[in-house]
Amino acid sequence: MTISTKDINAFLLQAARDGVIDRGMGAAILKQVNAKRRRTDIAIVGLECAFSQATTKEQFWANLVQGRTSIRTMPRARANDVEDSLGITRSDEHAHYSAMGYLPPDR
């Protein structure tokens, strides 16, 4: 069984509310549990993005500022690829992807 930090926090808060543990002790444990969690550093070594109707992040931002939308209806050929990989057809209840969120390549 895996117990998350969120589960531990909820348990300790409830135990303190119910008087099962002293509030000061609960606060000290919460501080220790969450201090360890906050020390998890990450490093972003690289980042790449593909924007529809923009070849740079600046151009993409300008499109947003101008209110230009880059979302298009997915072409039937691309929808066929998605349906094949997901094992569904457009008539399935889970096939709502086909009308939203497609960012066509401009390159």
**Overall number of structural domains:** 2
What fraction strand?
under 5%
Largest sheet: none
Identify the overall geometry. elongated
Q: Treating each run of at least 4 consecutive H or I residues as one helix, how many helices?
A: 4
If you average the pLDDT, what whole number results?
76
Overall radius of gyration? 24 Å
Distance between the termini: 48 Å
> Which stretches are poorly predicted, pLDDT < 50 over at least 5 residues?
none
Order of helices and strands: HHHH
Quaternary structure type: single chain
Number of strands: 0
Helix content range: 40-55%
Computed structural class: mainly alpha
Quick overview of this protein structure:
The chain is mainly α and 107 residues long.
What does this structure look like?
- There is one protein chain.
- With 107 residues, the chain is an all-alpha fold.
- The protein has 2 domains: 5-38, no CATH class; 43-107, no CATH class.
- Helix content is 46%, strand content 0%.
- The protein is built from 4 helices and no strands.
- Helix 1 packs antiparallel against helix 2.
- The radius of gyration is 24 Å and the shape is elongated.
- The protein starts with a helix and ends in a 21-residue tail after the last helix.
- The mean pLDDT is 76.
